[in-house]
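Q: How would the structure tokens look for this protein?
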Amino acid sequence: MRGLNDFLAECDQGPRINQLAGFFAATAAGKSGMPVRKP
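A: Here is the predicted structure in token form.
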């Protein structure tokens, strides 16, 4: 079950949804990922 243990360890080390709240808020507001100038 080494693969399962590696998978679970990787999940534990990943970012939590609360840590990404700022990213999601900026994306939903249209602030993140927008071009610097309009095409």
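The chain has a mean pLDDT of 79.

The longest helix spans residues 2-13.

Upvote if useful.
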